[in-house]
Each structure stands twice: as C-alpha cells, then as structure tokens.
C-alpha cells in the first residue's frame, strides 16, 4: 500500500465505522504524537512515521511500528502499555515524502526525536 493510499483508506474506514483491523489505536496508548504543518497552519495529515527502540547488547535500532498521522495530525496507538519497556526510543518523521506529495521540496528530509525514558517522552517542540 502506498504512503498516499494508507491514510485515505484509514479515513474511509473511519467514516464507514469499520473496525480498525490491525490498528493498535483501539487500545489506549501512553505514547502518541501530534504533527502540525506550520506552513498551512493545519494538522499534517498522512505523514509517515516510524517508531523504533534501541536494542541491547548490539545497540541496533529495532523498528516497532510504522504508521501515518490521521486527519488531526495525530498518531494514537503507537504502542500498547504492555509493549512499553524501559529503554531508548526514536520517532522518525518522513518529512521529505510528506512535502513531495504536496509538490514541494523539504528543507529537512526527515526529523528524528529520541528519548531515553518513555515516561518523559515529549514529541512536541
């Protein structure tokens, strides 16, 4: 499924009231994010992001989830409470693809936010 199709499909399913199959947003998650498109003043809908955790002992990033921001620029349900464990986490925002789909160039090809403790994970800023 292309990065353009996935958000449209999710929006259609939401409007039709379909259950979100395979989507962890149905469970409460302590980790969410909210992305705003400051150029338009609107939420950044359809932006792809990837959540990873730094795994010991080899210190390699393990991708846990790929998702897209919803109509409100949010990405709820990234991890369920049972999936969260102490460690270093990274959110990768694919800003280049987001802008490319809108016919514009991106100054930053991607943005990464890294946190060592999810209890203090803040993706704003």
Automatic annotation (TrEMBL):
A GO BP annotation: purine nucleobase metabolic process
Subunit composition and interactions: Homotetramer.
Entry GO terms, CC: extracellular region
Main location per the UniProt record: secreted
InterPro entries: Transthyretin/HIU_hydrolase, Transthyretin/HIU_hydrolase_d, Transthyretin/HIU_hydrolase_sf
Keyword Ligase belongs to the record: no
Compartment(s) where it occurs, according to its Swiss-Prot or TrEMBL record: Secreted
Keywords for the protein's UniProt record, in alphabetical order: Hormone, Hydrolase, Secreted, Thyroid hormone
Protein name: Transthyretin
Family label: Belongs to the transthyretin family.
The keyword Secreted belongs to this UniProt entry's keyword annotation: yes
Functional summary from the UniProt entry: Thyroid hormone-binding protein. Probably transports thyroxine from the bloodstream to the brain.
Residue span(s) of domain Transthyretin/hydroxyisourate hydrolase: 31-112
Any one GO molecular function term: hydrolase activity
